[in-house]
Write a structure and sequence with these properties.
Length: 292
DNA sequence: ATGGCAGCGTCACGCTGA
């Protein structure tokens, strides 16, 4: 819920976590919510059909759950302290009679809702498998569809917080071994260009506003002892539209969660925003870079 | 160059993820 720091300053925390099965990770998710108390947690890879989603466990703990899932694969959810407004599932609905969008919507990868007037868009971008796979083409098509979705007038008018598992490392500094891995899946020029196209001039990778260095990862492969060797990728991101990016106080990767017993292969990420903006207190807003 | 680990569905192992 909104935390009041003084009479005029409020803050909202939005988080994202690919949990790799919400049922297997349920206790860890509830524990993290209890500790961190975000206003909204966006989940990806819930891997469960809606009737089997453990809604009650969240309700009992005082959370609201909006779900958009499927059996075994994909699946996204919004877990919030207060009810969200105008929850929408999928990219379709904004692109009338678009067969391509409908086909891409068969996989449950998108859910969004309004939190205090901010459109929070929770994404699970396709992985793409390998460069020769049909899934790779699907990934690029999916990103092109997302771009058109964001360009629709209704989307452009709302302050946007776009979060999730993007399955793309935007730059060399987002991979533990860029020399070896650049050009492979999650690090091709085509994927990076498609993501840049989605972002346009308006959406900022908010983690990079606070941390320019390499060595900050959100995903560590289960195999090859990647976690023990800290060989990771930064593929989970938070993007903010122009009116929000100046209000970010911090952006954190909750790395220690990857060290849990039976962990997800992803760590949560979160952003703290001064929201709603305070514009009538007679003081200049502090530079968020000075607060890191 | 390849596989490795984990979860799912369904009960021995193939599919998928990243």
């Amino acid at each position: 819920m909104l935390r009041v720091f003084n009479s005029v300053e409020t803050s909202v925390q939005i988080a994202s976590w690919n949990v790799n099965s919400v049922r297997t990770r349920l206790d860890q998710v509830l524990e993290w919510l209890e500790q961190e108390q975000p206003d909204l947690l966006c989940l990806q890879e819930t891997k469960v059909d809606d009737p089997l989603f453990p809604v009650e466990a969240f309700t009992k703990a005082g959370w609201h759950a909006n779900v958009h899932g499927q059996k075994s694969y994909n699946g996204v959810a919004l877990i919030s302290r207060t009810p969200l407004n105008d929850v929408r599932c999928g990219l379709i609905g904004e692109l009338p009679d678009d067969a391509d969008a409908k086909r891409l919507g068969e996989q449950k990868r998108v859910i969004s809702g309004l939190l205090d007037g901010v459109r929070v868009l929770n994404l699970y971008v396709p992985n793409g498998s390998n460069l020769k796979s049909d899934k790779y083409t699907y990934k690029l098509n999916w990103l092109a569809c997302l771009k058109r979705y964001l360009e629709a007038p209704r989307q452009r008018d709302e302050p946007l917080c776009m979060v999730g598992d993007f399955n793309i490392a935007p730059e060399a500094r987002d991979i533990h071994d860029p020399e070896r891995l650049t050009g492979g899946i999650m690090a091709t020029d085509a994927e990076r260009a498609a993501l840049k196209d989605v972002l346009g001039e308006q959406l900022q990778d908010i983690f990079r506003l606070f941390e320019p260095d390499a060595g900050h990862w959100t995903w560590w492969d289960y195999r090859t002892g990647a976690w023990a060797r800290d060989r990771g990728w930064r593929i989970d991101h938070i993007y903010l539209s122009e009116e929000l990016s100046g209000l970010a106080r911090s952006c954190r990767i909750h790395k220690q969660i990857r060290g849990n017993e039976q962990p997800s292969d992803h760590a949560p990420i979160s952003v703290d925003l001064n929201w709603p903006p305070d514009d009538d207190d007679g003081w200049d807003d502090p530079d968020p870079l000075d607060l890191g």
